[in-house]
Amino acid sequence: MSDNDLPMIPFNRPSLAGKEQEYFQAVIENRHASGDGPFTRKCHQMLQEYLGAPKALLTTSCTHALEMTALLLDLQPGDEVIMPSFTFVSTVNAYALRGARPVFADIRPDTLNIDERLIEDLITPQTRAIVVVHYAGVGCEMDVILDIAQRHNLTVIEDNAHGLFGQYKGQKLGTFGAMATQSFHETKNISCGEGGALIINDPQYIERAEIIREKGTNRSQFFRGQVDKYTWVDIGSSYLPSDILAAFLYAQLEASETIQQNRQRSWERYNTELESWASAYNIRLPIVPDYCQQPYHMFYLLLPTLEMRQALIAHLKAQQVLSVFHYQPLHLSVMGKQYGGREGDCPVTERISDQLLRLPLFNNFTDAEQDRVMAAIQSFNPEK
Ligand SMILES: *Cc1c(COP(=O)(O)O)cnc(C)c1O
């Protein structure tokens, strides 16, 4: 049998937690498929209880939750928002949409998170917020970042798309910022295909968040009997997902312990079994500080060069294993350059984006599949 007869091992394979069908049936029987139905309420309660957050609101995506944070901060053209260049485009787009100017910071070479030592130099009188991204769910240096924010009167937002179930120094990721955003996209640990959540830790944003999420109306207050009719009170959009998606999501959230155990097992197998191969070829594995508890969202390799990274992708593909690179520096993108981004602005980001390779890791990854991935990796001799 040639390698090409083996089934392809994908980078990500969406999986069912078990009760999705049953809960879909319940939505049909409830006759409440629009937003904020019984399953949405269950998801809100579960997220609030798990995080100990005053408010969790499901959204149609993490992108939309980020847009809500920009609206809630009342960002105006000319305002500046500091964020890493090494992140997904939605982190920046949400603020650019409001006319705010992104100011990109480089990342730390160890955790690949925003380098907190560089933030203070980027602050100007126009700075309004710092947006952090816990890359691979490994916490940013929140002690330092919160201190900077407090001293300069800035709001901290966590793009916690990778970080649900992670902790930094014993505190859950998603509970540090005034607000945090979650993603339930198909590629994340917990998924409903497309979905997200806005976590509100600073209660001053709760009332307006409900209004913005409901097309700028006080409909949520109306349904709670707090006002006798509902009307247009602010700007807003439609950021609430159907209860059909919430039902799917609830099934996944309920299974989170099993999902996390499976991912932890796969992550640790990679980390242990690839260690000697990696050190022989000067290939770096993820660094997780001992005060960070990670949610096993991602396993990556850092290859010494772009050429070697591309060679490994091709080598794995020839053995029916799909591996992928990740973020390209936002400051060097077409839009990033329009905001003044130049080569050399964020040297660590520029280097890491060429070196990083993500390996298959998903909820129902079997040991047999992972063995095949690891054998394929170990048959790669970068010196040839
Ligand atoms: C996945 C992701 C998003 C976007 O999530 P969606 O739910 O697809 O909008 C935003 N930021 C980061 C860091 C992500 O990984």
Give the beta-strand count. 12
Distance between the termini: 25 Å
Secondary structure: helix percent: 25-40%
CA radius of gyration: 21 Å
Layout of secondary structure:
Blueprint: H1 20-30, H2 38-51, E1 55-59, H3 62-72, E2 80-84, H4 89-96, E3 101-105, H5 116-122, E4 127-133, H6 142-152, E5 155-159, E6 167-168, E7 171-172, E8 179-183, E9 196-200, H7 206-213, H8 219-223, H9 243-254, H10 256-273, H11 275-280, E10 292-293, E11 300-302, H12 306-318, H13 334-338, H14 347-355, E12 356-358, H15 367-378
Parallel strand pairs: 2-3, 2-4, 4-5, 5-8
Antiparallel strand pairs: 1-9, 6-7, 6-10, 8-9, 11-12
Helix pairs in contact: 1-9, 2-9, 3-4, 3-7
Write up what this structure looks like.
The protein is an alpha/beta fold and 384 residues long. The chain has two domains: 20-253, Aspartate Aminotransferase, domain 2, CATH 3.40.640; 256-378, Aspartate Aminotransferase, domain 1. The protein is 39% helix and 13% strand. It has 15 helices and twelve strands. Strands 1-9-8-5-4-2-3 form a seven-stranded mixed beta sheet, sandwiched between helices. Helix 3 (62-72) packs parallel to helix 4 (89-96). The protein is globular. The relative contact order is 0.16. The model has no long low-confidence stretch (mean pLDDT 97). Pyridoxal-5'-phosphate (PLP) binds at residues 61-63, 87-88, 90-91, 133, 159, 161-162, 183, 185, 196. Pyridoxal-5'-phosphate binds at residues 61-63, 87-88, 90-91, 133, 159, 161-162, 183, 185, 196.
